[in-house]
């Protein structure tokens, strides 16, 4: 069997054609993002990616994607229910997002989560060469670092949490809190999106395990685990290349035309998820319409909400509520041929998304809680001409970097209305200055910079660098 000096372990493989039975659309935009950043770093030394290929039953052998090898992990229908839809997405996901939706604690999910984590750890142990670096991703696989250390103490193990890591008040609710924390602490480096998460982690390590911990290190079992913030980013060059493509430019013009050449286009692009604040946003927008601050003829709102985790009941209920509300708003304020909200519940290609970003005047990104939020960064990267306004939730990780956005507390519907109006009415010079500052930041902080920063921190002895040129 072929072994690699770098192994990535994530719930999903970075494939295009791996639609899950539940239509899952995760952060692993396929095959871009992390996979292409790794290609750029590791072209001479092929990495292996361990993950679920989508679907149930025995996973097929898969061809390499460029220089990246794929090692599929198979899941049964029961695994999918207990591990993915259950413990990961009905217990951990809501709890880590401020419990904006009540987390479900169903006891039998834990055993499946543990078994599936072991399967991922076994697969990683199999494909990692002696002394390799293994980079484990996200809340689905929190037990893998420790399982892997037990199997292969020779490995350099990294863990990165893409979602928020909650404060003790929330984490303490978890029946299996000690095992989950110990699982992550099997890593040599635990990375988060924000400093606050590393702080929460240190507090929990002290409180639950009696470990000596600072916001940078946790001492456990005679080892020192390093922690830190590594804010993820996007492939800025890819987005810039897309928005300058003539077909994308004309698609953007066509979109504006199809929308009836309004004075202003407001745009939101989200996975259909209760953390994304879609309902609060609709309430704010409908009140602006009701009170006459926004007129359907001048302004249109486009809400793209790609289906997600469709077999999980809370997601089905959310979809029904949102579609009911969009219907109500359009029924009340729309005119023949002029809906107040264009609602698109479908996935888009990268070029189509780029055209949408170009069409918008105001991008509205208002999650109630979000680890980072890549949509906000994609919008900024797409604005080659430096125009456009970004309304951004204070509770998205990206708010710590995109400080020149119109920042808002999405729970405060009046504040949200007021901020939307400010963004719509801002003068061009103000908008251009804000956008220029955000674009400067992004230019120096793309996904490649992120991957390099994480991997060189993981590899503090320089061992991997000699193999791959990471440093
Ligand atoms: P997500 O919660 O999935 O990611 P986000 O960061 O916004 O959220 O990424 C969504 C991705 O999906 C973006 O790249 C976007 O372009 C794409 N997308 C959205 N709608 C789409 C559509 N209709 N068609 C096609 N593509 C679409 C999790 C965390 C985030 C964190 C990321 C990365 O919840 O906080 O930023 O991981 O770490």
From TrEMBL:
Molecular function GO terms recorded: alpha,alpha-trehalose-phosphate synthase (UDP-forming) activity
InterPro entries: Glyco_trans_20
One Pfam family from the record: Glyco_transf_20
GO biological process: trehalose biosynthetic process
Domain of life: Bacteria
PANTHER family: BCDNA.GH08860, TREHALOSE-6-PHOSPHATE SYNTHASE
Family of the protein in this entry: Belongs to the glycosyltransferase 20 family.
Record's protein name: Trehalose-6-phosphate synthase
Originating organism: Actinoplanes aureus
């Amino acid at each position: 069997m072929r072994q690699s000096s770098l192994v990535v372990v994530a719930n999903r493989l970075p494939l295009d054609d791996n639609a899950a039975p539940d239509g899952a659309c995760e952060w692993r935009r396929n095959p871009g993002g992390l996979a292409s950043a790794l290609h750029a770093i590791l072209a001479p030394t092929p990495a292996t990616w361990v993950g679920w290929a989508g679907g149930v039953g025995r996973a097929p052998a898969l061809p390499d994607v460029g220089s990246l090898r794929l090692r599929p992990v198979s899941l049964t229908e029961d695994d999918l229910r207990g591990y993915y839809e259950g413990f990961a997405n009905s217990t951990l996901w809501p709890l880590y997002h401020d419990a904006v939706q009540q987390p479900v604690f169903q006891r039998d999910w834990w055993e499946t989560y543990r078994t599936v984590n072991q399967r991922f750890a076994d697969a990683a142990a199999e494909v990692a060469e002696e002394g390799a670096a293994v980079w484990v991703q996200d809340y689905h696989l929190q037990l893998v670092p420790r399982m892997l250390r037990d199997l292969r103490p020779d490995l350099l193990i990294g863990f990165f949490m893409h979602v928020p890591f909650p404060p003790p008040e929330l984490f303490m609710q978890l029946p299996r809190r000690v095992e989950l924390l110990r699982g992550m602490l099997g890593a040599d480096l635990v990375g988060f999106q924000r400093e606050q998460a590393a702080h929460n982690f240190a507090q929990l390590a002290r409180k639950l395990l009696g470990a000596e911990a600072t916001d940078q290190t946790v001492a456990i079992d005679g080892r020192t685990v390093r922690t830190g913030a590594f804010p993820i980013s996007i492939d800025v060059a890819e987005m810039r290349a897309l928005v300058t493509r003539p077909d994308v430019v004309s698609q953007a013009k066509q979109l504006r035309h199809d929308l009836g050449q309004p004075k202003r286009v407001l745009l939101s692009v989200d996975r259909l998820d209760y953390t994304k604040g879609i309902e609060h946003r609709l309430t704010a927008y409908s009140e602006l319409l009701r009170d006459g601050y926004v007129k359907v003829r001048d302004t249109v709102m486009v809400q793209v909400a790609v289906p997600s985790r469709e077999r999980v009941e809370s997601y089905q209920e959310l979809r029904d509520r949102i579609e009911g509300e969009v219907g109500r708003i359009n029924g009340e304020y729309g005119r023949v041929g002029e809906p107040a909200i264009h609602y698109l519940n479908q996935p888009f290609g990268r070029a189509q998304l780029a055209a949408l970003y170009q069409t918008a005047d105001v991008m509205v990104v208002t999650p109630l809680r979000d680890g980072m939020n890549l949509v906000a960064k994609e919008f900024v990267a797409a604005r080659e001409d430096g125009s456009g306004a970004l309304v951004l939730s204070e509770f998205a990780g990206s708010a710590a970097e995109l400080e020149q956005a119109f920042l808002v507390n999405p729970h405060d519907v009046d504040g949200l209305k007021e901020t939307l109006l400010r963004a719509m009415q801002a003068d061009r010079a103000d908008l251009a200055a804000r956008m220029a500052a955000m674009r400067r930041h992004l230019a120096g902080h793309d996904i490649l910079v992120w991957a390099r920063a994480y991997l060189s921190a993981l590899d503090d002895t320089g061992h991997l660098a000699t193999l791959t040129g990471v440093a």
